[in-house]
Amino acid sequence: MPLCSHRALHHHSLQDPVQGLVAAQALCQVCSISFDSSPAHKACHDLRFLEPPLDERATHFHFTMDESWVYSYDPETKEQSCEWLRSMEAHPQKPRRNIGTSKVMLVSFFDAKGLIYREFVRRPVTVNQIVFRQIFTRFDIAFQNRRGPRGQVRGRMFIHMDNALAHTAALTVQHLTNLGWTALPHPAYSPDLASSDFWFFPHLKKGLRGCRFTNINDLEQAVDDEISLISSEEYKDCMLVKWPVRWRKCAALQGNYFEGIH
Description:
With 262 residues, this protein is of the alpha/beta class. 45% of the residues lie in helices and 13% in strands.
């Protein structure tokens, strides 16, 4: 199994060697990965000298984003649908329920301080690279409205995304660069290393399971209500504790997949 850092560096080197080096440097500093055991880790270690170290305040400008479908009906999990039964009481019969056919795409951007921007994309619109660049521009405006003009931001601004084509297209990378953002590396086929996949979306959708919505407006309002219940401490715990722990373990296991981290 290839090293997770090697997979990430390979992806970014194909897009833009300079941005790939800077992005790998940022990720390695945030996660405090050890670089003693392999050439790929040693390369990341050397990248730390290209820029001043990122302090805790600058770390708060490491954002993560992703997209996910939210359905008008999502069945409860087995854990959620459990019922207490008396001794010798027969188990109730439960009909098989399928996911609703109505759905909307949720695009979210957040960091250790909380959610900065979210957008719903309704069918038949798809999040291709053109639509994604438009969404990212609106996020960048929301970022400046919430955190101040870009010139007042201390340190560089980094965004962590998966390897979807809309995120990695050359025009998208150039657009992010023009706005002053650098994309952090992400190993392919690794949702366990993406904050949105291992925490945000599952946490958000848990509260929606078992609820049936008759129209998209009600569904979007319910999503916003669930988002409002997520505390700032939960965002901080995800971005500054859970996410780095997973990257460190991935590096320690030389890129092998692992279980048991929640």
